[in-house]
Design a protein that fits this description.
Layout: E1 2-6, H1 14-23, E2 28-34, E3 53-56, E4 64-68, H2 72-83, E5 92-99, H3 111-121, E6 126-132, H4 142-154, E7 164-171, E8 181-183, E9 195-199, E10 205-209, H5 223-228, E11 232-238, H6 244-254
Parallel strand pairs: 1-2, 1-5, 2-4, 5-6, 6-7, 8-11
Antiparallel strand pairs: 3-4, 7-11, 9-10
Function: Nucleotidase that shows phosphatase activity on nucleoside 5'-monophosphates.
Keywords: Cytoplasm, Hydrolase, Metal-binding, Nucleotide-binding
GO molecular function: 3'-nucleotidase activity; 5'-nucleotidase activity; exopolyphosphatase activity; metal ion binding; nucleotide binding
Length: about 260
């Protein structure tokens, strides 16, 4: 299988290096990643400045490796449209391994998830992978790397729904302490919207985001509850945002009797 790996933590992050090393023995792996951390970049793209790309010596086991000055979304978009040859086109895009969870509606801000979504937008099966911990030592990611390799074997032939990705979050635990895999829905929010008002040494006011973990029932079928229960959460996520069940009722209100020119 040909795999394109990217991330939002940057080319030097331990997560992307562990993932590449874990997958390379069984697959043809290509790496295109930002030159620095781009966490919480969301689905932004570079439009008003040049997007520079440089090929590097390969990360352990990768066929080829590139670094860009762009966002996570840029990496996948330019990789598929301009960098990779026809023979290198990926069968799947994998974003990660992110250090830190990407759970609930907070995925809307996530560069890791948006990186995978870019692959899905181009019709390529895509997976976002996160380690639910702020620890970022190399060894912390090794079980997650092995899990992703096992996951690829399990889902071989799985018909990815169009416009969708799998969002994977792995608890930061020893392998023996993981309680299994849970197929989940997105939770609400991982953190509350709390800002601390502070004053710097020059007397200027500034704000620091300092949200606390939200409470969610442990028996909820959500990604947040699964990780709290020491399970690996796998959530199918789509960027198809149209609320189709509201179209008919809204049309009835605004365009009844074919009178849609009421303005």
């Amino acid at each position: 299988m040909k795999i394109l790996i990217s991330n939002d933590d940057g080319i030097a992050a331990n997560g992307i290096r562990v993932l590449t090393k874990a997958l390379a023995p069984d697959h043809d792996v290509y790496v295109i990643a930002p030159d620095r951390e781009r966490s919480a970049a969301g689905h932004s793209l570079t439009l008003h400045t040049p997007l520079r790309v440089e090929e590097l010596e390969t990360i352990t086991g990768a066929k080829r490796t590139w670094v860009t000055t762009g966002t996570p979304g840029d990496c996948v978009k330019i990789g598929i449209n301009a960098i990779l040859s026809e023979d290198e086109m990926p069968d799947i895009v994998i974003s990660g391994i992110n250090h830190g969870p990407n759970l609930g509606s907070d995925i809307l801000y996530s560069g890791t998830v948006s990186c995978a979504m870019e692959g899905a937008m181009m019709g390529i099966p895509s997976i976002a992978v996160s380690l639910a911990s702020m620890q970022s030592d190399y060894e912390d990611f090794e079980f997650t790397g092995r899990f992703v390799n096992s996951l690829l074997k399990k889902i071989e032939g799985f018909p990815f729904p169009p416009k969708s990705i799998l969002n994977v979050n792995v608890p930061s635990l020893d392998e023996d302490d993981i309680a299994g895999v849970a197929i989940t829905e997105l939770g609400s929010r991982m953190f509350t919207n709390t800002y601390e008002k502070r004053v710097d040494p020059r007397g200027k006011v500034y704000y620091w985001m300092a949200g606390e973990l939200t409470n969610e029932p442990n028996d909820a079928n959500t990604d947040i509850a699964a990780v709290r229960n020491n399970k690996i959460s796998i959530t199918p996520v789509t960027y198809e945002m149209t609320k189709e069940d509201y179209i008919a009722s809204l049309d009835k209100i605004l365009c009844s009797d074919n009178a849609c020119n009421w303005y």
